[in-house]
Amino acid sequence: MLSREFLRENAARLLSEMPERFAGSGIEQFTELDRLRRETVTRLEEKRRVRNELASVRGRPSPEVLAEMKALKEEIRRLEAEAERTSLDLSAAEMRIPNVPHASVPRGKDETANRVERAWGEPRSFSFPPKAHWDLGPALGILDFDRGVRLAGARFTVLAGAGARLSRALAAFMLDLHTREHGYTEILPPVLANSDSLFATGQLPKLEEDLFRTREGYYLIPTAEVPLTNMHRGEILPAEALPILYAAHTPCFRAEAGAAGRDTRGMIRQHQFDKVEIMTFTRPEESYDHLERLTGHAEEVLKRLELPYRVVSLSTGDLGFAAARTYDLEVWLPGQQAFREISSCSNFEDFQARRGSIRFRRAEGEKPEFVHTLNGSGLAIGRTLVAVLENGQREDGSIEIPEALRPYFGAAEIRTRS
């Protein structure tokens, strides 16, 4: 959430300079409602002042004064209700206004304006037409899309035998890398979250249609970003505790309401998937250094798995609601002849911290400040599994397992229905 003072001073500029980001966001309503609320409060304070002056006059008030005081009482009650109603509308409007992009973010209306920053690895040359994972997996007996549909519905997949083992191996490999070498503390959080937690990270109220909600009012988490960010909701952290680095492996659940008809084949866009998330709380002046570091940690997973990828800066029109800057990591999938997103690494600056009241104090007696929060996929396990299958495929349909993963998987290849 952006501060009200900042919005009051910059709303018109933001709307004019970045309509692709702010048009229709609620910023127009904010400006009008903020004006109405302040005008109402000014009138209310003036009526209260007059009432208090009349009430302070000694002696018995005249019938005219009594009538005026009665009218003032009714007008004050009406203005109080109007101020309360306008304040609620104002809060609702400002909750839906997205974060302000960092100055380094490329400008553009959509993903066509995204900028490739760098690439790593050379896509492998095949002596045969490479297959997509939706052909490779079923042929090996390790991915079962039909039973996923039978058990739950579209966008669900059953992993069997070596497929399930590969998923487990990837999660363990990623967690060990992040905790043992990158300094993250492993967390195993709940996969249900309350509305306050989803408000803090920015999923509520703006993105509610993409969430699964239980009858009891809890939400299935769309990413471990939600519980990890809320680990310190409502707290004031000591400066010496920063940075705080967390990693978590959880299932994630997304309704994909805004993605109807997209990626209907295979495991690219699922209602349920596993992911290793990495999260940082830091001082504001250090957050962009941490964005580079966190992104590098996600990249290291791809490097060790020998998977070609590229790093893309998202444009102002493609940036997520709460993010100030985002790098997408896109892995090469030879079966689809395309780069596909496998991680998003974002700096939210103090946007989430304001919504969740997450602060730190630099020294005893100093005023608390909002921390900056960052998170990224380190990585999405299902998409990494897809990349391992498609990049490691052989002409006979078997799969070569990357060397770094073999101690976790327990074999160098997937050859039969194992």
Your description of this structure?
- The chain is α+β, with helices and mostly antiparallel strands.
- The protein has two domains: 4-95, Helix Hairpins (Orthogonal Bundle); 111-414, BirA Bifunctional Protein, domain 2, CATH 3.30.930.
- The chain has 13 helices and 18 strands.
- The strands form five sheets. It has an eight-stranded mixed sheet. A three-stranded antiparallel sheet has the order 5-7-6. A three-stranded mixed sheet has the order 8-14-15, with no helix packed on it.
- Helix 1 runs antiparallel to helix 3, helix 3 (27-56) runs antiparallel to helix 4 and helix 7 (162-181) crosses helix 12.
- The longest helix is centred in the first third of the chain and has 33 residues, at 63-95.
- It is elongated.
- 39% of the residues are buried.
- The mean pLDDT is 96.
Radius of gyration: 27 Å
What portion of the residues fall into strands of 2 or more residues? 15-25%
Helix amount:
25-40%
- Tell me the name of the CATH class of the largest domain: Alpha Beta
Remind me, CATH topology of the largest domain?
Answer: BirA Bifunctional Protein, domain 2
What structural category characterises the helix and strand content? alpha+beta
Number of strand elements: 18
- The overall average pLDDT, rounded, is 96
Please indicate the count of domains: 2
- Major beta sheet, specifics? 8 strands, mixed
